Fold:
Amino acid sequence: MSGLRVIAEAPSNIALVKYMGKKDASRNIPENPSLSLTLSSLKSIVELILRDGSQGVSWIPQLPSLPGGCPGESPQLSSSGIQKVIKHVERVKLRLPVLFNEWKIPLHQQRFEKCQIILKTANTFPQASGIASSASSFAALTLAVGAAFSSSRKVFEEVWSKEPELRRAFAQISREGSGSSCRSFEGPWVEWNEDRAQLVSDSALDQLAHFVVLIKTDPKKVSSSEAHLRIKTSPLWTGRVQRTQDRVMRLKSAIQRGRIDEVSDIAWDEAWEMHSLFHTSQKPFTYWEPGSIHGLKYFSEPSESWPSAPIVTLDAGPNLHVLVLKKDQEYWRAQLKELFPQTSILEDSPGKGASLQFWEEQ
Ligand code: PMV
Structure:
């Protein structure tokens, strides 16, 4: 019996204009455009083993065997989580013949028709960190499945590295498994509108550093799928699409002109708006904890002594994400430590998106 082993990885991303509300839930088409920063070391790693001769897809709760060791933890997946993963593998497989044909990537016909797929996954951020792993894990999974059914690693990697449109086609498939995963295929800045996610070109912003203040790490009481539905019952929903379109336009312009102060203002307005939608839905809910409010209060009152404007946002959770100029990273690390002496703080930097790490015929 012969087979193949591939390992792909993809980072998480943090949105400054948020995906919240679906126009078509069956395909994860968003109500509004969003814009995010792709991260780097907060990522998921997926090992996919193909065994010729039998059939089926299974996920094993073990770390991928990366040469040199695999960072991170193997997540605990519920049975519905495992089903979602398996369904996504089937979804990606189904799309490959047309996609490969279009990009002249050779398909391994024999394996495509009959083989067993074994998956092992890891996240470099702990399950209890409150960082959503679905964006990074679905992006890495989509790439791993695609790479595994190519009969030529060389051709696949060449097209992958040279053709952003192939990455975007993978992002489209990934989106159907997890909406925000479509923004983890390129970087640093990615805009997602309707069914298309693509790089924001010509960023003139100086190097950034990313902090996550882990206010609380319990599982969410309201899932993001539920939040996507409930926010439309808020009286503040009216005009949201127009406002986000306007914010994405201004944010792109601020990124392209290198204006961190404007980026900071837009991200602040947007984070408050998304959380205000949560707070005013029928029925209302909140992800905020006392620590989130402590941080929001501090950042509400900009100080003359700040070296530059911090970009502050929260996802559908209580944790604070703070992006700052890399040159001011030490200053902000000290500030955050003083503000949150008992709290873990993760650090990362902007990245370039999903990549293939390993490919071996066995
Ligand atoms: O991809 P989902 O369905 O988990 O939605 C994620 C939504 C937010 O993280 C709250 C915002 C975003 O744009 O990432």
Remarks:
- The longest strand covers residues 34-52.
- Residues 79-103 form the longest helix (25 residues).
